[in-house]
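REQUEST FORM: STRUCTURE PREDICTION
Request ID: SP-0412
Submitted by: Lab K.M.
Chain count: 1
Length (residues): 383
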Amino acid sequence: MNLTGEFKLSDRTKTDSPDVALFLPSLRGGGAERVMLRLAEGFAEYGLAVDLVLVQYIGEYTDQVPSVVRVVNLKSPRVMNSLPLLVKYLCQVRPRAMISAMSHVNIVAILALKMARVNTTLVVTEHNHLTTSIKHNIYQRARFIPSLMRILYPWAEHIVAISEEMKRDLQTIISTPIEVIYNPVITQDVFREARKVPTLSYFGGEGFPLILAAGRLTYQKDFETLIRSFSIVRRKFRARLVIIGEGDDRNKLESLVADLGLKNDVLLPGFIKNPYALMAKATAFVLSSRWEGLPTVLIEALALGTPIVSTDCPSGPREVLRNGDFGLLVPVGDPQAMATAILTVLDAPERYGMTPEREEWVMQNFALDQAVQKYLQVMGYDE
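STATUS: Completed
RESULT:
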């Protein structure tokens, strides 16, 4: 759909009503976007007709949309500007259910559904530890989100948090019932891609231990602490650090790498289409975030048997790693503690890899089929 109100649909006709619509800002390389694409894949495998409704059809994941999923491109400059276009989509297409992700997107979805006056079941999902995220948000308008949530969220049929800790955080803002559904992270594609040869040849492949991290290069991910901890590790271990991802902090992080004399040991290759091949071969995976929701990359590393070091940030890592049973937890923003944990793993990586208990934990909690079935129940498709 463009700004003149003409729909841009693929595959099915305008009159086809999808079983479920997934509403997102874009397909930029973030965890929520990957989760929604996996849900689209899972719903389609169950035989549902799926629309992927995007404010803008841009981002690193545009080529990963399943072929059976219809894309609706609203072509709007901002999420809030997409409101009248989303209303028109709901009025004309009338999906049986709609799932939206992230607070500002959820607010627009709720308003659009009220204005459209259609009988669509709305499920809003939260993907970040909200109170921490708002505290660190640089935009003043973010302060109004909790108030808007208190007013508008009761209008949604279902509110989903992606971790128990996130649910407790949301309950400090809203009194509406909240359900917990873990992200659908693990699919057969993850294991299939992990078996491939990595496309990234880091530092010529000298065979040194590889420490891997992945995420947007932003304040939230705190890769500064990781780089500082790696400088400590590097004094004792001939290792390499690769941080996959792109973001506003690239120049700042590259300057820090240069200042610490690590240009020959640290690589920031940007977005990589298949991170799993590298993740499966890494000596250790490190999550350095200040806050999260339920970190997708941590679950992927857990499933691939990679030894893990993670900050004990709100929320997700402690829950994902079952209170530290399947990885080492360290305080947020502490380079020395992180370095000590990384060195512990490098000294004996075989002690922190895959076990039958770890594998069972991953598949029971974070497999695609588990999440899809729970969302189908929420949307009423189990009836």
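NOTES: Residues 1-6 have pLDDT under 50 and may be disordered.
Reviewed by: T.R.
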